[in-house]
Amino acid sequence: MTKAQKAEQERVGKILELLDEQYTREYKCYLNYETPWQLLIAVMLSAQCTDARVNVVTRDLFEKYRSLEDFASAEVMELEQDIHSTGFYHTKAKNIIACAGKLVKEYGGQVPDTIEELTGLPGVGRKTANVILGNIYHKPSVVVDTHVKRISRKLGLTKEEDPEKIEYDLMRVLPEDHWILYNIQIITHGRGLCTARSPRCGECFLRELCPGKSGDKGGKV
């Protein structure tokens, strides 16, 4: 390991240490659910939508559709109306119905526990799959949402734009025991201090470790 690599490893370690101190190591999910399939549908709805809005929608949605079979047999136009406020409701409704049908027919109503099987479901990409792997099956996974993409670039942990490439960069630089935690902590950080529109760099506890402070768009890996 070169001197520069060692210094970077130490910097990343300090970032994680400060995140742990500020936000704890508590595992939490911002989406409300009771079953694995409910979380899967909630995450599908969260694309281009806030968790708060999704939680409002799913509160009634999961009362109306009480099983995967209910979703699989739903009328697409009716489901579109039920999820209308989450945006992109045409595509989401179609994918939810198709996904529920595949889970019922091919998986006996069980949500699979591998990235390959999950991403083989209609409307399920790597982000959604990794949320399921981390929150349901407690398998180390890196979830790249808008907060993680933006702040990881500011912190210099990646210079990529593509979420999958960012995922692999973070898997390389973060210790496995922080893969899930990092997402949880960075979401909190992105909603509080490091907001997209008005980052409060002067108040940030990561300021001295952040090459992207004061408005930089990216940093070095």
From TrEMBL:
It comes from the Bacteria. Its EC number is 4.2.99.18. InterPro entries: DNA_glycosylase (IPR011257), Endonuclease3_FeS-loop_motif (IPR003651), Endouclease-III_FeS-bd_BS (IPR004035), HhH-GPD_domain (IPR003265), HhH_base_excis_C (IPR023170), HhH_motif (IPR000445), Hlx-hairpin-Hlx_DNA-bd_motif (IPR003583), Nth (IPR005759). [4Fe-4S] cluster binds at C194, C201, C204, C210. One of its GO terms (molecular function) is metal ion binding. Residues 116-135 form the Helix-hairpin-helix DNA-binding motif class domain. This is Endonuclease III. The gene is nth.
